[in-house]
Amino acid sequence: MEAVSRGRFKAWYDLACWRKRAAYQLQVEPMCRSCATRGEISVATIADHVVPHEGNWNMFRLGKLQSLCKPCHDGGKRFEEIRGFSDSIGRDGSPLDPRHPFYTGKLP
Predict the structure, then answer these.
(1) Under a CB-based contact definition with an 8 Å cutoff, are residues 47 and 26 in contact?
(2) How many helices (H) and strands (E) does the chain have?
(3) What pTM does this model have?
(4) DSSP of 28-74, one letter per residue?
(5) Do 50 and 64 contact (CB within 8 A), yes or no?
(6) C-alpha span between 61 and 49 (Å, rounded)
(7) How far is CA 95 from the centre of its chain?
């Protein structure tokens, strides 16, 4: 199946195959992966595609998943997809993502 427009693949999330896969992901990884990298503990509520599928059916069905809480999914993950790096900061005050402009010297 070819990639489809952004609005058309939203219905895929209502399919039984997705609901089962998402439930399984949250069962095997119940805590938010993004929060865990910052040393925080948060219950995950969203099964997220690590690499956005962008309407590709095979990527949607088979792409690697991670568990995220809603704030990380809607905030940090979205920022990273748009900017190309994470803005997460470690306990020492330094960015956690090696792609961050702090390390690369490139301004976004």
Answers:
(1) yes
(2) 6, 2
(3) 0.71
(4) H--B-HHHHHTT---B--EEEESS--TT-HHHHHHS-EEEE-HHIII
(5) yes
(6) 10
(7) 18
- β-strand partners of 47: 67
Report residue 89: phi and psi, to 5°.
-115, 135
- In the numeric block, the tokens 């997460």 are attached to 88
Question: Which token pair is 40?
Answer: 């925080």
CA-closest candidate to residue 37, choices 98, 82, 83? 98
Q: What count of residues does the chain have?
A: 108
What is the per-residue pLDDT across 14-40, written as a single tens digit (0 to 9) for each? Answer: 999 999 999 999 999 999 998 998 889
Q: Which residue has the tokens 């993004």?
A: 34
Cα–Cα distance, 14 to 105 (Å, whole number): 42
Amino acid at 50: V
